[in-house]
């Protein structure tokens, strides 16, 4: 078996994938038709230019267009099920999926019905593919901390399979400090905490995030790779980084593979996971993420397996489930 075949066979855990960002092109076309949207796309080929991003703000515009095609709570069941099917094809055993609830609540969709729909998709996929999944609710920072508190109210009323919160969306111009009380409240509610940071803004935002939000994990964190002292602080505080390498290249967060900070993170003692972020939008999946690290940055099979184990260790699974999954991953790896 070649190194690349072994990499594909590695058991994996996905920590950072957006449910909306997992919509397949074929499914997006179905959503356009079902929602009656006036968009000039009829075939998958029509979408190739649509998915060609000039920079991170442009990507957010495209993401918002796809997001707006969800006009029924029930849409989420199909989207989630298909996301899990794609993950299973990459030997992913557990997924922590991001759901930006307020994007839809503000347009009149019911939060509880969307959560029910997501969980129906999760349960069907677990039966069919053996992959488990939990939900992380993105407060979406550009709505402001007041809306963040309203989203926490929604979670407090219905937290079925919701284990964590995050702040994604636009970064530049939306510093993390105003969300301090949201994060404090989330922890009091028993939720885990993550923050998208260092993707669309500089290292100062990451410093502020670490100081005021104290997240357990940072999504992307690219800008932190330019500051050795900041990386030391992140490692010392035990904050893990959810790295999304292909996404970072596609959105221009890094200019080339040589610039990507993932190795620097690891060298500074930061526990790193590797993730697909918005897989169909970036033409990637979990196997490709691992393969690209091997091809472009020289990661060995053993190093990539260690990333898989780190992903389990820094996941939001319960301790017994973590220990069980780590043993399972090791047993599978020894048989490859």
Summarize the topology:
Layout: H1 3-9, E1 12-18, H2 25-35, H3 47-50, H4 56-68, H5 75-88, E2 92-99, H6 102-105, H7 111-129, E3 132-138, H8 145-157, E4 162-166, H9 180-188, E5 192-197, H10 203-212, E6 217-220, H11 228-236, E7 240-243, H12 245-250, H13 262-267, E8 272-274, H14 279-282, H15 286-297, H16 301-313, H17 319-335
Parallel strand pairs: 1-2, 2-3, 3-4, 4-5, 5-6, 6-7, 7-8
Helix pairs in contact: 5-7, 8-9, 16-17
Explain what the structure shows.
- With 336 residues, this protein is α/β, with parallel strands linked by helices.
- The protein is built from 17 helices and eight strands.
- It has helices at 3-9, 25-35, 47-50, 56-68, 75-88, 102-105, 111-129, 145-157, 180-188, 203-212, 228-236, 245-250, 262-267, 279-282, 286-297, 301-313, 319-335, and strands at 12-18, 92-99, 132-138, 162-166, 192-197, 217-220, 240-243, 272-274.
- An eight-stranded parallel beta sheet has the order 1-2-3-4-5-6-7-8.
- Helix 5 (75-88) runs parallel beside helix 7, helix 8 (145-157) packs parallel to helix 9 (180-188) and helix 16 runs antiparallel to helix 17 (319-335).
- The radius of gyration is 19 Å and the shape is globular.
- The chain starts with a helix and ends with a helix.
- The relative contact order is 0.14.
